[in-house]
Batch of 3 targets.
Target 1
Amino acid sequence: MRPYQKEKVKNYSARIPQWKKIDKEIQQLTKQYHQIDPGSIETFKDFPLSQKTLDGLVKADFKNPTDIQREAIGVALQGHDILGAAMTGSGKTLAFLIPVLECLYRARWTSNDGLGILIISPTRELAYQTFEVLKKIGQFHDFSAALIIGGKDLKGEQERINRTNIIVCTPGRLLQHFDETWNFSCENLKMLIIDEADRTLDMGFAETMKSIVSNLP
């Protein structure tokens, strides 16, 4: 008689291709979008967000959404346009960056798809701050991102701009690329975000923004 040996439990989940796991997660998440109730949201885990985004939020020490985040994130996930207004420090940046990541994740975006998200900020400082937050909460995603602002190497930006999935930029620099970067394409753009839109106009960028929008699909 052979001694008793505990039967090994086979891990069938390990055999499931990664793309199937992602597809399943996306299907489960999108089914929950219409059920989002801002009043019942206490933590970011209460939103139907991808595990990669949730991991990024935890790593960056973001736990509890602010009022603007509770109200805006669900609407953005459902694909609606948003005009948001809130005080400085209220969390507007995270309110649009989370839907940005989820939008590309849901679309299974890759570097071959090119530019998917365009975020325009009125100043270099604000663009830099937005880019830093994006890097923190998006660190577990595979998307490429670039900070496109004046004062940096234009040629270097031109070489990588079409391989970038998310661009955070200032109006003047973006328009310069439309004028001088011959292969710069926005034909696959999924989302346009104008951060501090009122301030952008107050700073005299109205004509620049008109020119930018005219170059978008």
Target 2
Amino acid sequence: MKILNYLLIPVLCFFTMECQKSNVPEPLRNDILSSKPTNFKFDPKNLPVIGKTTEDDLKIMYPDGASMSSTYLKPRKRKINGNSFEFDRVFHFGEKEMKKSESPGMVKYSLQGYITLSIFTLNKTVVFYKILHKVKNSQDEWVPGEYNQDDPKAPGWGVNTYPGINEDACLYLLQYPIEERNKEISNIMDGYTEEDCKKKNNY
């Protein structure tokens, strides 16, 4: 999620305050641009059914809501793990596995695992989902967890929640009026086009 960390997180407070302005496209106003703490607990028996589960169903399945979400004014096309689909919204649900260690006068927590469930919808119905699961091994290295669905040798594995997220995040930001983006992220994307997003973030 490189470009998300670089571009989206710094503008969270800005968009949270400004999203009620009429010049921000209405469909984007409820998006969650930076990781929100939730009590999401991954359950392999509680997963959406492609073509059947709706966004309203997701609210029941995961009542705490997504930790991040984004909306696209025009449907995007993506191919992940051999599956081609179109989507207009993405919801990310994340859970961290922490290890507690204690010493005299000190308590320490270290990240031992992370799992992200990314759910794609089109017209409010789930069209695809994928799971990124990474854990620390005995050598303190990140390796695929039991539920991981991505190739650990692929560029960006363990950082990007799904292949192509950097391009999608770039295109997402292009949906905002230039003046709204530039208030918080300067001119970092001035002159950017859809082709630039594809060329510079093709992983």
Target 3
Amino acid sequence: MPQLTLTISQNINANFINFKSLFEKIHNALRIVPNMDVNTAYSGVIQESYSYIGFNNPKAAKVYLQLYWMENEERTAMKPELGKMLLEILEHSIVPEVEGQGLICIPRVRIANLGRLNQSYFIGAG
């Protein structure tokens, strides 16, 4: 079960961002990942109540996508390719929407390991 968190800075007006379309593109990109059920992905947006970016430029905006997954050899090998794909999605979807608000936006992507199930990552029975 992958987890996707998009963190955006407090100066971005989220009402003008099409998050549904953005996450559809991200989920479609994740379908190339071996043995990943994208339908079980936990995805969401966190808007910071305080953001410090760079030299405290009020026009600077944070767009930071984090993908957490259960890592294996195949997934580790594809991290560079997938990271570039996810970055391109951000650059062609949310970045123009943020820049349209008069902000400066340099997106970031992080792909990280959740750890091992029942050792460093736990899922409730539901």
